Amino acid sequence: MLKIKVVFFSLLFSFQINSQANFKDSVQLNEVLVTGSKLEVSRKIVPLSVSQITRNEIEQSGEINILPSLNTYVPGVFVTQRNVLGFGVAAGGSGAITMRGIGGAPNTEVLVLIDGHPQYQGIFGHPLPDAYVASDVEKVEIIRGPGSLLYGSNAMGGVINIITRKNDKEGISGNVGASYGSYNTQKYYGTIGYEKEKLSVFASLNHDQTDGIRENTDFKITNGYTKVGYDITQNLKVNGDFNIAKFNANDNGMVDIPKPFNIDITRGKTSLSFENKYKNTEGALKLYHNFGEHTLSNGFHSTDRNSGAMIYQSFKLNTATVVTVGSDFKQYGGIVNKTAVSDSLIIINELAAYVYAQQTLFEKLTLSAGIRADKHSKFGTEIVPMGGISYYPTQNTTLKASVSKGFRNPTIMELYLYAPNPDLLPERMMNYEISWLHSLIDNKLKLELTLFKVNGENLIQVVDPPVPPKRQNIGSFDNKGIEFSAKYAVSKALFIHANYSYLELSKPVVAAPRQQLNVSTNYKYKIWDFNVGIQYIEKLYTSIAPNVTIQPDYLLLNTRLACIPIKNLQLFISGNNLLNQLYQINKGYPMPGINFNGGINYKFFSKP
């Protein structure tokens, strides 16, 4: 591990700058984020640890699904995978997301949003990551740590906000593409967008399928998405969208205990938002509805929904003071048969209000504080405080510190369905962190270092015995660690991105490696674009019950080569796990060895 770090940092700091005079202008001087405050503000003002993945980085990674990109570009985050496509549900399901050792399997402690709207299922309480196709995404913003002040339950460990694409210039534009690879893995996709004056439209259609790396592990998904925006006035905008995804997956069980299993799922979402922006105030009213139907080969069938409304408004009281007030209402649940609550409708309501204020002093110091009152129809009222400070001793340096609370209410599944316990209590945690952000070499090199400590209580886990197993609040947990990231724009042609994290756990947690190092290098030369990615994982728990299983350390090497032989046409080929590492992320589910895929992408544009 030490050798890997020495080689990486030697390469990172030994490159000599050889760039054109206008290269400085091409480097992003100040990242603007919305997820950490619900306003467009500079990243340095938000006291929380916030990361961003750009559209360009998503395309360079070559990922079909957006979530694996989190491993590459965000420190302290780990996303489980299996097969070459399809995260899966049920026994051996993956797509779990952990941040700083918090997440759950399946993930119920890191909240996934699409354009600010919660995406978890009404019954199971976790997102279905298979539907998050990369072609629909403009950028991703990530809060590494509690986001419960602004987003409530399920944001205990962090927040992932997937911001969808829209046209950025008038006319018709889009792209079509296809790829083929190992294990008969196929992808076909198309997007089209239109913008003229006050109207913008974006639509996409995706189909992915694979035979899988083992017998009875085939997977396929078809996903359609449409988004429409209209500027009612210069200060008022309305946006609406609709998404539907249909997928089918076969799970052959653990490799040494084959047990064929089929999952047939339909999921959809729709939302409507009204956004206003004036000189001294801005805000939004957002309505959303998520729905789904799950049919499993063991006879399980469910329909669920997750609906809600969000309203917030920020006021600039003066040049140094901003106050945001907001309220959320959520209603979720569904119908399940062949269970102890056969054919019964289960509904949960949550109502919350919050206030968040930022005060800048002496142009070098910003104080932030907020509080949320969240009322649950079963568990009563939860009070969520947050406080932080951001200090800018120089133009290129930012120091941050924050204390924030996160919480998660038990899901309907945990209360009433699998290993149920209706007496469960909400999970809670306090997060303490300090960060240092610094830029060098005319802002071409950006560094971030974060130290954090987490203290939590009421952790929910399945306990066996008793027989049958039962979920219990097993007590406290304490995590602490270090996160480091670096972005280096060596020249207009060469970019390097790296992150490293160290995590110390008081109790073993599945899908939370002790050490993780990710390095991504992208080089462009004339018509060629070459990307190399390295991932090193140390001490990864793949199982903690009934026995603790640790995956031996592994090192992955992935590459992608693309060229543009004629304008707007791209050809590409990718190679994954080129070191042919034998490893498992989910116990009993071997990951693919060396595998390849290649394809074509064509972009088009016409002026109005």
Give a structural overview.
The structure is a single chain. The protein contains six helices and 37 strands. The chain has 608 residues and is mainly β. The longest helix is centred in the first third of the chain and has 13 residues, at 2-14. It is globular and about 65 Å long. It has a single domain, classed as TonB-dependent receptor, beta-barrel domain (Maltoporin, Chain A, Beta Barrel). It starts with a helix and ends with a strand. It has a 22-stranded antiparallel β-barrel.
Features of this protein?
single chain, 608 residues, mainly beta, Maltoporin, Chain A, 22-stranded antiparallel barrel, 5-stranded mixed β-sheet, 37 strands, 7% helix, globular
CATH class: Mainly Beta
The CATH architecture comes to Beta Barrel
Number of strands: 37
- The value of Rg in angstroms is 23 Å
List unreliable stretches of 5+ residues: 1-29
What is the molecular shape?
Answer: globular
Q: How far apart, in Å, are the first and last alpha carbons? A: 55 Å
* CATH homologous superfamily identity: TonB-dependent receptor, beta-barrel domain
**Helix proportion range:** under 10%
Count of runs of 4 or more consecutive helical residues:
6
- Report mean pLDDT, rounded to a whole number: 89
Q: How many domain regions?
A: 1
How much of the sequence lies in strands comes to over 45%
Coarse structural class: mainly beta
Could you say what the CATH topology is called? Answer: Maltoporin, Chain A
Largest sheet: 22 strands, antiparallel, barrel
